[in-house]
Amino acid sequence: MTTEHSGSGDVSRSLELLWGLGERPTRGPKPGLELSRIVTTAVRIADAEGLSAVSMRRLSTELGVGTMSLYRYVPGKAELLDLMLDHVAALDTGGEAPPTGWRDVMERVAHGLWRLYERHPWLLHVDQARPILGPNAMDGLEFALHGLDGLGLTDREMVNIIVAVDGFVFGTARSHLNAVMAEQRTGVSHEDFWNAQAPVLTQVLAGGRYPTQAKLGPDAFTGSGEEVFAFGLRSLLDGIAAFIAERTGT
To answer: Which of 19, 2, 22, 39 is CA-nearest to residue 137?
Structure first.
């Protein structure tokens, strides 16, 4: 369930903080307190306990300062979320070796996003329909666009490809990680969960209403999240490759 929305605070202030354009506090209650420390602490809390655990009061306790003192650095939780999102968005491109082509670039983007969601699963519960573009977000976009540049695609086509890859990874990662968190949350294994449904479903499938499902083997639904991700990414990129070949006549 989506619980937070990016860009829901003071957009101008979020951008100023992300790009270092705003005025810094002239004095503070605790020497050495920096905006970066506030953000990294918030991310650490979200990673361990979920985004709902992040509050200005909780941060003040973790940092050992008064709650009101934090507002000298960041206006509120909405703007803090924008900073958190860009902080974790530094794209992991899978090493320093230069990409070998557009497909390598898209694979690196996809795998980088997958690892990002694994490290910070709370991201899957943030609506980023209106993202605030900070340095890390724009670095990642530049990397992806540069990989598609020069192929004869229109600007919109390049952006559409990036959005398609991003949407695929988000949806697949959300299904995979939600399943992992369901087991952790309930203490009930996936095997036990499905075994509990087996008696009824066996009767239902024997009734003839769902003949195609009844023919499925016992391993039909045993694919891991990683397997689904790899299969889907390969198929998506194959489709994009066909589109590029048709679009450019190569």
So the answer is: 19
